[in-house]
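Class prep. Sample record?

___
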Amino acid sequence: MANGDKQTIIHGAIPPRDVLLQFIADNPDRASKREIAKAFGLKGEARVELKDVLRSLEDDGLVQKDRKSLKRPGALPPVTVLDITTRDKDGELIGRPAEWNEELGVAPAVAIRQSSADRAKGKAPVGGLGDRVLAKIFASKDRAGPAYTARIIKVIDKHRNALLGVYREMPGTGGGRLMPIERRGEEMQIDGSDLGDAKDGDLVEVEVLRSGRFGLTRARVLSVIGSVASEKAISMIAIHAHGIPHIFPHSVLSEADEAKAATMSHREDWRDVPLITIDPHDAKDHDDAVYAEPDMSPDNPDGVIVTVAIADVSWYVRPKSALDREALKRGNSVYFPDRVVPMLPERISNDLCSLREGVDRPALAVRMVFSKEGRKAGHTFHRIMMKSAAKLSYQQAQAAIDGKPDDKAGPLLEPILKPLWHAYAVLKRGRERRQPLELDMPERKIILKPDGTVDRVHVPERLDAHKLIEEMMIQANVAAAETLEKKRQPLVYRVHDAPALSKQEALREFLGTIGLSLAKGNLRSNSFNGILAKALDTPHQTMVNEMVLRSQSQAIYSPENIGHFGLNLLKYAHFTSPIRRYADLIVHRALVGSLGLGDGGITPDEEAALDDIAAEISTFERRAMAAERDTINRLIAHHLAGRVGEEFDGQVSGVTKAGLFIALPQFGADGFVPVSTIGRDYYIYDEAHQALSGERTGLGYRLGDSVQVKLVEAVPLAGALRFEMLSEGRPMPVAVRSFHKSSRRGASKKPGTRPKRPHR
């Protein structure tokens, strides 16, 4: 036993749960049911009992299946959103992650720690059953209990026992059905007496009344959110499902309306500097402007000076104000195809802090000097008043450089645009030397019709104009982090850890199946670039890019700097988008305070709370990404709902025990092919090769395969598509077939039959 425990284990008897968990943790290479039974001398009925005990551990989230073995669950993020769902036998609260990938198994249980002393002193937020909370996560030392413990940072939503769905009337019954909006949701019955003001087609919140063994679960309507037939209804589902604040309180709007234009106090007058904005053609706010010129210093021959000016949000949004509290509550703006849920009211984001053409606007600017090799020689920060010389779209700026200027961009070509492109060429030399991770993952944009339905899915061309702005913003972010570190000023970094060793090994194993290798040891971003370059223009290109992306850690905000692996930078802090990211606003305040640039600097209270602030905004960023992804899935499912029965060209984008995820590149959508519907063979999942392979025929499907599928079901409210596989599998590599022999000795299935519980 670990830690000197004296517990006696009787050979041949079922060991206690904590002993089983200890064995699984200590023996990851032999933690299958067979090996566990062998280790403890279990035979006959004891093996059946062991199976039940292991299943209960899995249901409690204490272990997860990994092929045929069991393992302790993968790590949760250090801060995450939990739904408090139950209590343990001692009455302590138990939560589970609000966002969880069901492909990983049952979401792990988390014990909520609530110190009675802290509660009595009012030092800690108090949670209860049904609450959604933001919590700090710790690995549990108690192997017999939940895998994690948590300390509540804040209660996000009290008593979240309500469910979302769409009410559908059942004529002649006086009531109807609740249609789920989640892929694994449950249809429920709503009686006329429990209907409230709901009408057919309304998006509603309900509470569950009864769940019995027979018949549908009954529910009662708590509130009506709106009609799903209305414009923007799809994004409203995601907004409510993920708890995204979308209505500004009156106090926040009043504070924004009462804001006055910034003065020249503590500002340099840069209104004659021809800074310009380059943004998407439909942008409503403009928070960054750029300008470049040759460096005339004899000490820096052929060098350039790049100036980046960023809207001075810190002047208008002061610590502890109503605007500030609401901005932190939101964390960032959320972008849907049909709307934006902004972090700040329009009076601030689209007016006072938008760098409008020809209008005086306050900004925080950084002036950076680069050598001709792209090495930065120095930089300085300035609090300024500027006046944008022009507003251009990416396409306008690029067309002018390519020799097709329009009437607006033409006069700017020689004095402004060409110096910018020359500076970008200089910065590119530095970027090529730095070797950031260069994934090729095209971004798809959904274009909507006036009625809010999908018109088409568009893949915007990646222009040098995009890359120019991106690289100049990266350099401004680096300069902000360097300046604050030099001033010993606490700040929030944007950090990106190196891939976990387990993910590196999984990627290395996968690459080996297609003849590529990944070096061992201390990896850098250019280690992956070499792999991506070898896969370029091969049938494996998409698959390799996807697998490299999956191997990466998630970028987060943190007051502790570990660098940015993907960008290959030692110091990096978000500075360039304070209109839409709270992290950038914190960095602006830190610069204003540490450089003595006037009012609106960071406060001691904010500095003391940076740990919690960084944790919150990292969590809210993940929340926004999930809501945006869900909305796109629902829009595409709506778009394809009338095309059931049609055939499509697709690509295998994911492989699981349960089946294949199929991407339709022309729509940017994913659907699913259940393994039980594929062919007449028994398919075995091979994680290392990312493949499903037929045991009898040796034919199968791998990640990245081009296939033809038929759409057999579209569930718009849940954003789900189900396909039937039309393409025959292709011969699997010898390594995959060898894997089958070692993992399925003696297994067989007659053609045309299926196991009773296939691949669940």
About this structure: The longest helix spans residues 610-640.
